[in-house]
Amino acid sequence: MRAGETTLWSDRFDRELSDIFALQDDIAAAVAAALEVVFARTRATETIDPVAYDLYLRAANLSTGHLADDVTYGAMIGLLEQATRLAPRFAMAWVGLASIWAWRLRSGRSDEPYATARAKVVAAAETALGLDPRLGLAYTSLAALEAFASFAAREALFDKALSVGPNDPDVLTSAAFFSAEVGRIDEALARARRAYELDPMKFGTCYAYASFMDFAGRYDETKALWDGFCARWPDSEIMIDAAMAAALQNADWERFKRQASAPTAAPDPHQRRRGMVWLARNLQAPNAPSIARFHERLREELQRAGTVRPDMLASLYNLGLQDETFELIDQASFAYMFDPQLGWPHGSLHGGFIFSVNANRGMMGDPRFPRLCARLGLCDYWLASGRWPDCADQVAYDFRAEAKRLVESARARS
């Protein structure tokens, strides 16, 4: 990093050997979470107490995206609280507080009772909107408080964010992640592209644009984007890992090997890279005993936690255990999708991964795929809203009819 610049992103992603299909989803989650803690530009018309503004900038300088560091986020909150005490009408500081508090609550990092923590998010977001109704990111903080499967309620809040901030790159990028989560990848890409056009130098907008190009199956075009972004952020493990994951998911083995040999600033990248290489070899020449051990690990996770991450199910499917994948889906609980007090079972995770053409084409083409979608609450949302995922028009089976059958069957049993 050159003198005078500010680090706005850093993180590490260490993985077990068979977890690489989870990697890109986790990175997407990291970017999405960081966008919830973004420090928007101040309005040109605002008059801000210089000391409060200095506190705000100091908090921004501590921001490292989705870094699992409670000390850092505690320090940011402390600085922003000082700023709001000195300047109670400093709307941006209130948005920053709402974003951090919402992220901590939904990621299981809040040390306060749920009702107390939730009320603080709502109060900060409403204060920000009262001071400046154009702050769309306040609505994304409120959306984060909804249950994950409350897609209609969350979408209404994202729509409000877009209505007041249609040209805010951070709002557009956050909305793009939601679009992907409900399977509308073309819409996600359009929003991410617009955000990238508005701010092509921001890490989050660049990552989202390249990721959703990949999700849409446009790997031939995405390769150049990953190359350019990796050159721009040569010390970013996140960007390098995402580029490697994209090559792996597209069986671009020569490119994968070239990227795997690239230098990195990580103190010990070898464990993660060994994991990627292991999976690449398994995809080219499956090692049945090793894949069986991975399956057993997921069965043990199901026994222990009662659920299995959707991205890990995609991993199992891509490794050739299709029937076993749907056995786990049928046995798993996805209660965390419907209870706003529950977070993802393994921390922040972005659900749009299951609709990635590059990463999950096989499972989406399986007539059993709507079973997973129904368990996640998606089929109810699609049926009620009439807004179907892109894959409904891309698969060989009648996706809509199967989704409707599953919803009606569940209602009949209840």
- The poorly predicted ranges are 1-27, 64-68
Helix count from the secondary structure assignment: 21
Distance between the termini: 58 Å
Q: What is the CA-atom radius of gyration, in angstroms?
A: 21 Å
Strand proportion:
under 5%
Number of strands: 0
Amount of helix: 55-70%
Shape: globular
Largest sheet: none
Q: Let me know the average pLDDT.
A: 85
Give structural notes:
- Mean pLDDT is 85; it is low at 1-27 and 64-68.
- The chain is globular, with a radius of gyration of 21 Å.
- The protein is built from 21 helices and no strands.
- The chain has helices spanning 20-35, 50-62, 70-86, 91-106, 114-131, 137-143, 151-164, 169-181, 185-198, 203-215, 219-232, 237-249, 253-260, 270-284, 288-305, 310-318, 322-331, 357-364, 369-375, 378-385, 399-413.
- It starts with 19 loop residues before the first helix and ends with a helix.
Core attributes:
21 helices; 414 residues; 64% helix; mainly alpha
